[in-house]
Amino acid sequence: MIEEIKKLAKGLQPDLIQIRRHLHQHPELSFAEHNTSKYIQSQLDELGVEYSVMAKTGVVAMIHGKAPGKCVALRGDIDALPITETNDVDYASKNIGVMHACGHDVHTTCLLGALMIINSIREQFNGSVKFIFQLGEETLPGGASLMIKKGVLKNPEPKAIFGQHVFPEMLVGKVGFRFGPYMASADEVYLTVKGKGGHAALPERLVDPVLITAQLLTGLQQIVSRRSNPKTPSVLSFGKVAANGATNVIPDKVEVAGTFRTFDEEWRFKAHKLIADFAQKTAEAAGGQCEVDIRVGYPFVDNDDQCTRVAKNAAIDFLGADNVVDLDMRMTAEDFAFYTQEVPGAFYRLGTRSSVNDEIKGLHTSTFDVDERCLEIGAGFLAHIALESLKYE
């Protein structure tokens, strides 16, 4: 069946390019993917595939094989990022300030392509395939969590779920896998350091929140370096510090925003308490106060061994062993993690780089783009993974 899937994927390539470019031209932000959702629905209507709308803009489609059997799920995300595209291409974003800079247009296209392939050969397999076009991956609380609450993993319950993500560092034609923990949990950390502002030349009359913040930013790193297990990767980073003062004005407060990431759920929540205690007590010792708001985000992505083995072996059969890569752990995050907390799953990478000589067009940048040959590969391989997974109990 591999050669049949490859032939079908190749035949779909012109359509996949058209779909991807339409999506790329019309990106929408998380939880506002109304036109994107309607476009996906229109594609499904043309195919005569049953589907339902979930959490306002998510779409869930089902294809049943010739006989009852188990269900497996494939997931693609549909939202874009608040970035203004700078690529000089005729399919550049028409929505100023919004761009598919993380490849979700590719993910959606490949999922639609896989659906088209599986729909055309539905008389050749037993069981069902659930296609999850998921909203809001880029923003808390994560569309995956919302769709799970709405029942996306029920009626029927998938025995396995698979998702792919573009990888601009990897050559097109290759895919990458990792067994076990792959991507980190991600929580947002907000600190509001309060003091007593005034004239910068009279510090003895003030409680300087800027100085307290400086102590916090350096001191909080001890949470990672001295309180965590060195064998468990952890990152605490602060990317925003806002002190609305001047050269001669100490402000009343400083606002700080950052992220905490790790691969251990028990340590994750212990660290939250350590961060809050350290920040509050350090501020109090200096005569100020610190309000701490830690917003729990995505758990870590945990690739199930059996699912990953099935997917990796399928890749070797579909693409050849030379095109299958072992991946390192990443401190970036993905709300696909919510699915892996509920059912066995595997999340893998799809190469999108044209050649080793090409500049890497990084994710979340205004110049991100892909070699569109990845569409045929991504769609065909997703379909192959689903059908291979249906063979296993």
Structure description:
The protein is built from ten helices and 16 strands. With 393 residues, the protein is α/β, with parallel strands linked by helices. The protein folds into two domains: 270 residues, Aminopeptidase (3-Layer(aba) Sandwich); 113 residues, Alpha-Beta Plaits (2-Layer Sandwich), CATH 3.30.70.360. The strands form four sheets. The chain has an eight-stranded mixed β-sheet with strand order 1-2-4-3-5-16-6-15, sandwiched between helices.
SSE arrangement:
Blueprint: H1 2-25, H2 34-47, E1 50-54, E2 58-64, E3 67-77, H3 104-120, E4 126-134, H4 143-149, E5 160-171, E6 175-177, E7 180-183, E8 186-194, E9 198-199, H5 209-219, H6 221-227, E10 234-243, E11 249-250, E12 253-262, H7 265-285, E13 289-298, E14 301-303, H8 305-319, E15 324-326, H9 337-340, E16 345-353, H10 373-389
Parallel strand pairs: 3-4, 3-5, 5-16, 6-15
Antiparallel strand pairs: 1-2, 2-4, 6-16, 7-14, 8-12, 8-13, 9-11, 10-12
Helix pairs in contact: 1-3, 1-10, 3-10, 5-7, 8-10
Mean pLDDT: 97
Shape: elongated
Number of strands: 16
- Taken as a percent bin, the fraction of beta residues is 25-35%
CATH topology of the largest domain: Aminopeptidase
Which structural class best describes the helix and strand composition? alpha/beta
Largest sheet: 8 strands, mixed
CATH class bucket of the largest domain: Alpha Beta
| Spatial extent as radius of gyration | 23 Å
Overview features:
single chain, 393 residues, alpha/beta, Aminopeptidase, Alpha-Beta Plaits, 2 domains, eight-stranded mixed beta sheet, four-stranded antiparallel beta sheet, 10 helices, 35% helix, elongated
